[in-house]
Structures are given as structure tokens and as C-alpha cells.
């Protein structure tokens, strides 16, 4: 038997207010039949859940808004009403709410929208959505996030990200960006896959050794998500071509492994007012940040050159070595920052540098500021 009473509080005492009669339930086949006869079907889930689909011809009113919104759709309180939710539990509660409000001809749909879909009954979507059915399934976990939803996913599908380097950082970053549905992902690299790459560059396999990285990466990423246009650029980014390469992109991810490339990326991004999502790795350590002085002109935000005005003199990755998962951690954090920027949610790491020590598993944050005498971003 279904409990159709609601716990209420008064003067510090819990008690239950009884409903005159139990809420009647109907299966989805009967609900569909009644819907065709003109019975009102209310979907009382949260609006974010509607993005995954609704029973066709249903009206979406979140349970918390029934009292204020339902009169706009139903003037006669004697009119029959069906209530549907995700799995059939919330609709019982919402139906009880309606009875308290004076709507007495109310029924709950057993199994909710889950059962409706399983039965192959017609499904619709809220107005203003351009996602197709395949995309709704692929990005379902995005669509249920209030910070993303359909509009956010549409932003991602319209976003353009440039990835400099398809190595240890670029491999995980590119996989997650493509999986997330970034519309255009361009990869700049002129190296070939070597067996020594395979310990950390998860885009590749033994069978791809000897291939150009961008060709192998494009094939892998396109197979992962055909929504994402993969642009393979067989070049090495330099100071001469950096400006032209970044011109058409919203976000630039620096997955390079040398100072000259980072300086060139930084200068081009500062000049264009675009974000540079940075990471570097060595041994068991990594650091990640976002350099974007144009993010907020009222703040003293640094560029890469502000923090690293001179090239380092440490050993290369090949000489010093690197734990295979470390660039994976850093690359995924780069992808996270890039997605936040594309979605315009949260706050990018524009005034912080994150250092990661995997031996002690410590994440150390340090505040950063612009160098007023920086030769790249200073106006003086």
C-alpha cells in the first residue's frame, strides 16, 4: 500500500495529515490512452531532467511550482490529471499535493518516464533544444548538470579548442575534450609515434608506432566522438606562425615540452586576449595554471612570461624521466579548465598556479600576480 500522507511540523511535533483516499495509479499504456483523449499529463521532475526527454504532449511543471503554475494550464479543478516523474515515486507525492490543493481527479503514472521510454511510447523535448537523440544519450550526464544542461552542451558543440602537442599532456586532454563534445578540436604536432611514448601517451598503441601523431590521434578521437571535428595540423608552432594558428580558436591548451614553444604560445595568446591553459611535468611532479590577463582588466593577472621570464635550465623529460600517470593528471586538469572556459562556468585558474607532488599526493596552490614590467603583457 502506498503511503500518501505527508509529514508536517507544528509547535515542534511531527504528525501526518491524511489524504481522504489513496492515489490511484495507472500504467504507461493506460496513461498514453488517456493522454490521447485529452487528459492533462504533468511532468513534475526538475526542469534539468526534462532535457533527457519527456512524455510527448506532457506539460512540465516542477513539483514545487504546481500551486502557482498549474492554474495557468487548468482552470477546472475537476478536470482529470495524470502525474508523471522519473520512476513513479515523486509523482505520488505530487499527486497528493494536488489533492490538497483541491484537484481531486488525479492519478499517478506507474514507473514514470523510465517505464514510458521502455514501452517505446512517444517522447518529446523542451522547446529551444537542437540536440538530436544520439546526442541526448551521449551527453546525458552533462544534461542533468544544472551548470551545463542543453544550452551548455550546445556551447561546447560550438566551441573551438586548439591543442599544442599530442604527447603526454595532449593525449588525455584531447580524449576528454572530444568525449565532452567540443565542436572543433585542432591538434598541432609534427612528431611520429615512438615506442617510448606509449608509457604515458595514451592516444597511441604499438600498432601506431611510426605513424604521424596527428594522423593517429585524429583517427582515435574521431572514432570516440564523431560530433567533434578533429583538425590535424602537421606543423611545429613557432613565433612566426603562432598568431595565425590560434586566431580561430576560443581556448589554447599548451601541451608542449619546451620553453620556446610556450613563450610563442603565450605571446600570441596575450596579443589576442585568449586563454592559455598551461601544464608542465617532470618526474613525479606537475604544475597547472591558466594565463589570461584579459579575463578581468581590473585584476593584476599574469601571463606565462610574468612567472617564467627566463627559460629553465633543468633536464628534459627524456633525461629526467616522468611517471606515466603524472601527465595524465595534468592533462585532465587542463581539459577541465578548458571546458569551464568554454561553458563560462566556475572560475578558471587565472590567478593561481597548482603544483602537484604525486609522491606525497599533495596539491599546493600559490597565488600569482602580473609583473608590472613584463615585456609581454605590461602596458608600460
Reported CATH architecture of the largest domain: 3-Layer(aba) Sandwich
The value of Rg in angstroms is 27 Å
Q: Report the CATH C-level class of the largest domain.
A: Alpha Beta
Q: Work out the number of β strands.
A: 17
State the separation between the terminal residues, measured CA to CA. Answer: 77 Å
What is the domain tally?
2
Helix content: 25-40%
User: Looking across the biggest beta sheet, what order are the strands in?
Assistant: 12-11-10-13-14-15-16-17
Mind describing the biggest β-sheet? 8 strands, mixed
Structural class: alpha/beta
Strand content: 15-25%
CATH superfamily of the largest domain: NAD(P)-binding Rossmann-like Domain
Write down the overall geometry.
elongated
Unreliable stretches covering 5 or more consecutive residues: 1-20
CATH topology tier name of the largest domain: Rossmann fold
Total DSSP helices: 15
Average pLDDT for all residues? 90
Q: What would you say this structure looks like, in words?
A:
Helix content is 33%, strand content 20%. With 380 residues, it is of the alpha/beta class. It has two domains: 6-127, Rhodanese-like domain (Oxidized Rhodanese, domain 1), CATH 3.40.250; 159-367, NAD(P)-binding Rossmann-like Domain (Rossmann fold, 3-Layer(aba) Sandwich), CATH 3.40.50.720. Strands 12-11-10-13-14-15-16-17 form an eight-stranded mixed beta sheet, sandwiched between helices. β14 (276-282) and β15 (285-291) form a beta hairpin. α9 (170-180) packs parallel to α10. The longest helix has 19 residues, at 325-343. The radius of gyration is 27 Å and the shape is elongated.
